[in-house]
Amino acid sequence: MTSPVHVFVVSPDTRSERRYELSLTVGQLKNKLELITGIPPHNQSISVLASEDATEPLAVLSDDNRPLGFYGVQDWQTLKVTDLDPTTSFTGQLTDTSQVDKFELSETEYAQRQDTVLAYKQRNKIGRFSDRKSEEPVETQNVDIPVGARCEVETSVEDFKKRGTVRYVGPTEFAKGIWVGVEYDEPLGKNDGSVQGKRYFECQPNFGVFVKPERVKVGDFPVEEINFDDDEEI
Length: 234
Hints:
This protein has 234 residues and is of the alpha+beta class. The protein has three domains: 5-88, Roll (Ubiquitin-like (UB roll)), CATH 3.10.20; 103-137, no CATH class; 150-218, SH3 type barrels, CATH 2.30.30.190. It contains four helices and twelve strands. It has helices at residues 26-37, 107-112, 117-124, 132-135; strands at residues 5-10, 15-20, 44-49, 59-60, 77-83, 150-154, 161-171, 178-184, 194-195, 198-199, 208-211, 216-218. It is elongated. The N and C termini lie far apart (82 Å). Its main location: cytoplasm.
């Protein structure tokens, strides 16, 4: 008893991997292939290809009474099934969308519907329909830090503070809220009083920094020499 062969079966609408006995006749094979390809047996023309990309067939299964073994079918070859009369079967209809009626709406009709993504975004104020003013309230924090005052700025290091002079208090373009611009006594800062091309005060490079008001303590803080680096400021 011979072992079955593993083959690929391709047709205009299908592709599958199958296993058949070499004793199976071509006629019997066509009956099985009808269930796979939808092509009636009398419309089938079956070619044996070395691979799916091959252009020339190794054989054509032309005699319904001959077994597959007669044609030398081997493992992993391809059986290409062609429909000789597609007008009498469903061949090609599964992939042909040219005859499918399409549901189309004009932009005006779409905008009037209430069951669309557009309507959902409008109802929930999402994306371009959002109320930006209500989403971004203006911070009205009352900050009692006078410009020109001496100050200490808290750092992430315990018991270590940086001293300097307050040079700016107010809103900025680089972040929301109120920020305090400080000119340090030493080059321990991050900028020269400007951020992202916008200048808020003047100082030497690396002497300027912007911090939140809660990190600033105003008082009589004389200049002292500091040698430390902190990466928490803007």
